[in-house]
Specification:
heterodimer, A: about 775 residues, alpha+beta, Aldehyde Oxidoreductase, domain 4, 3 domains, five-stranded mixed beta sheet, 29 strands, B: about 475 residues, Enolase-like, domain 1, about 30% helix
Amino acid sequence: MNKASSLQEPSPTHHDSALRHVTGQSQFIDDMAEPAGTLHGAVYFSKWASGRIVSYDLEKAAKLPGVAAIIDFTAIGGDNQMGPVVHDEPCLADGNVTFRGQAIFLVAARSREISRRALASIQVKVEERPGIFTIDKAIEENSFLGPARKICTGNPDEAFDKCDHVIYGELFTAGQEHWYLETQSALCIPGEEGRMTVYASTQNPTETQAIVSEVLGVSRHSVTVVVKRMGGAFGGKETQGNHVAAWAAILAQHTGKPIKMRLTRDEDQKVTGKRHPFRSNWQAGFTSDGMLIALKANLFSDGGAATDLSWAIMERAMFHVDNAYYIPNLEVNGRVCFTNLPSNTAFRGFGGPQGMAITEQVMNRIALLTGLDPVEVRRRNLYGTTERNITHYGQRVDRNPMEEMAVRLMDKGDYISRMEGVDAFNKSHRHIRRGLAMMPVKFGISFTTTFLNQAGALVNIYQDGSVVIHHGGTEMGQGLNTKIIAVAATELGISAKRIVVEPTNTMVVPNTSATAASSGSDLNGMAVRDAAAKLRNRLSTVACRILGEQARMIVSPADLMFDDDYIRLEQRPEMQLAFTDLVKQAYLNQVSLSATGYYRTPGIWYDKEQGRGKPFHYFAFGMALAEVEVDLLTGDVRTLRADILHDVGNSLHRTIDLGQIQGAFVQGIGWCTTEELRYSKDGELLNFSPDTYKIPTIDDIPVEFNIDLFPTGANPGTIHGSKAVGEPPFMLALSVWLAIQYALQSVAPEKVFSYSLPATNEKIVKWVEELRAD
Amino acid sequence: MNQSQTIFFYWNQQHVELDFSRPEAPRPSTTVLNWLRSQHQGKGTKEGCAEGDCGACTVVAAWPDENSVMRYHAVNSCLIFLPWLHGKQLITVEGLADNGHLHPVQQAVVDFNGTQCGFCTPGIVMSLFAIYKNGASAGREDVVLAMSGNLCRCTGYEPILEAAMSITGLPGHDHLSDTEAEIAAKLKEMPEAPVRINHQEQLYMKPASLSEAISLRQAHPQAVVFCGGTDVALAQTKKFIEYHELIDLTGLKELTSFTEDESGWTIGAALPLEAIHRRHDGRIPMFDALFRVFASKQIRETATLGGNLGTASPIGDTWPVLMALEAMVVVSGPGGQRTIDIGNIITGYRRTAILPDEIILEIKIPKPKTERNFKFLKLSKRRQMDIATVSVAVSFTIDSKGIVHDPILAFGGMSDRPERATLAEQVLHGHLFDEERIDKACRTLNDNFRPISDARSSAEGRTILAENGLKKCLNHFINPQNKQTNE
């Protein structure tokens, strides 16, 4: 074991907050010192899925000792709106409710307990209307959000006629609760001239600023949003962190007091949106040697009661329905359903997992019907490197390492002999079966809404040589700031300990995009590099003069090396200048030590109407091989082993990247196995607490868990040749779902069977009965 | 009766006197978590769920055992009330680093990159600290069982597991060891705990003896009685219920005994499950299997058999096991003691035959007179830290001719109460123990139970799981030579 770290000494090999995390010093919203007079905010959420608010009585609640204010939508100073893309989300219900969990009233009270007790004494009468709670019902009622979308290449209908086999299928993939450890929270402090400072747990401070300013009826320059860190987010705080901030800000404006609002775990699980459930039907045509020639897929997602990000999520699902396979004739149609449920939202993968699950299902079916090995079918259909490499939306798949990855992983994971072992095991066991499955992932990196692909930064150097970085990204545990520090340290040639990253602040770096789409380090890393490069250029001018005098020669910036806290002449390294001395000299010579940086991703575009474009800057690739053991009697699943190869280009930070892969994979196992959202027939979420909603524990991770970064070299046009890593590995966990299917299929090897996701214990035992039935 | 309203404990190295007679003192049933978070130096401990399911609030409580050796117990601070701290050392994440240097368990979490967002980290660190201090060498499985009450959504646990493995089996020495003996001695010298705390419209009673408990119970029939409090705390933290009268039997001396003789085992109702686990040493049938899947380590450190029986949950995990063991429950009231057969206690949904003025004293588990087969199985969505969808415990005898005698098939989750499948038992009793018979018994469950659909499972799922669970339990005893093919 290493020598104990001193608390003052950050190590560049670890997460920049690691020392504070393990000592309990890291502050989350609820840990911040509350200003004197802070009140606690609470929200009365609709208990009705759909209906008209007939009357209500707030008197009793208002009279409770300790209650400072209780308000409805009429107290909102600005627009009663908090829809991020489309203004279809009232901040507080204004006469109608459209989902259980919709905010109707706000309460401010002396304590959190009193605020919750006040909620209990509010009386509301609602004339209920029938609601829509499933995708099927929404389709039946023609209940949709936005237009139908289509992407098509080739001509599937004609192609089906020429295929040896044409098959049909359906797939349901369920939602997923984010279960970030820190529930939605905000602290709003009102100031002079109608100003509002919002300490928020949000992935999108600029949007939080926009929505708070709109509901307060003030300009954006009056609202400052500050984000130090989030206790997890995973997409759940991309738009829905705005809500708590907006509610707290309204109360703060109304009472003139600071307001802290933190949802209870139950509230959070009940009222916030989740991963979109998808119901899809598909038709696939393939040849006897397993080549997928044509695919037609119709995707329906459950958007919930407002648009939120549902369109972009559907779009990404449609972009990823090919996963890693070349399908010459592919038509994909997408439709977002309106239902009377909390608006579903971003969640790691953002539609990608739902889209890929369809094609992986098709691949399994092809293997079953052709008798080919499932991995062989997948390999035959992979995108090519020089041909068969254009996606259905027209983007070329460049630098595709997938065949190489497959070979390497099969070798490393001993695929062939383990598959024989699995088959032998299944022949000799009645109630315990094993499954092995391997699958690729190709994931497009960039916001598919092109203009969002921009970022800003501000880098300041102080006279003592210490450096502070502001950037537009937010830290939610993913290690963005650690990577940012590494980028700036490299650019300026200084040690990481000289650099701190300040909390994200909308007053310092404006007009930022959400830290989402895995793009945090891609975009903000480039913006920080831009700012750091400007400073380095300015410092270089000063250094050239000083070192030139020292060495009695003419020095140009190209002769300088910035490294190790020193600036040296490349040819004569003994001629050196300490970074701190250079900074001092620059200041004395009236050189600005502050620079902004900016980046926009070049060359990406997408035409929604035509379904054509280059929406992604590049693709990230990965491959997973998973083995499971399934108890057919109890439905218990254990992932015995997972081997992962993943492509991060030139890693910005190896340990951070490995952590993202491990975490995403296990989160994906949760989605595929134990995480099930259960609703009553009236659409009421039944399992809204960790008591009944089960994310993976330490006992649910692969018993043997091998992860390697697959070397693909420097990724062109990205920060230090790296690739994004936040989302892509999530989808690798579909391999666990596929392995479960392999295990179950051993009960009836020839039977064509429709699986769904997640594969819970309950579903597994039911499937086994159905597989065994004649 | 002790008139004091003050509790004494150590918080890390600091001696704390909390006098509930002071107006600014918190309400006695304030959870340790809420108290910590109201303190300037206590915000390292986090609230993730306020119901003991996530472990973000894990702290360690230490107190000397019967041999005056300090023992370290990881507990959920969201589920324990302040008076529980009396006479203990509360160790929180702020107390681990020594003079600016990380504690070995903190260092391990840093070294193995076991932290991302950091919100679960203090709880993870404290669970690791308990593993470290208890010194026992632990394999992967032990670590998994000790850590399954700590949820992390970021890391995928692998680095945490690696960190844990790196600190197990070490002597557990750290800077706390330097003051351990001194603190242990001081804890032993602490004054008696207060018996009645009356503060902020709450009467919190913590009787010092059984007779005191019974008389307090008589005097306060409205009071909520609890033993461990993992259930009672929830109602307060999650539903914001205000308790006005509480009787806390946790740790009551007469209720924490554990004895074994030829006739069987006698377990005090207030003995925490982890203490039972340590004491019974694998001898009580099915108990090891039960404790492996009963809640989390943190909860087992405070939850008790008495509490699990008293709440009478239809899915209380201990019920089917105690039914299959033919346990007897000794209760005590103003009219003296009586012993009730476990099968006669539950009278309906969360209702029992225990009278309002009676207190559960102990549980007697007889040693079987003949050689009996026992098997317990919990079927749940998630292996660890889950409530059973269905649980099943079986016990039966097979004679030399292979005939089944006196089977007990007890189920949780299949009815409004834990219940025996009497019809299925009849199918087995007096018949040859073979697969055909097992199948027949399993199918009979349908006539025994009409389970419900709820947040955990559909009725249909429960029906299949119960049949399968019973089959798995019984199959276990078929032809052990062919065990592999049976599986």
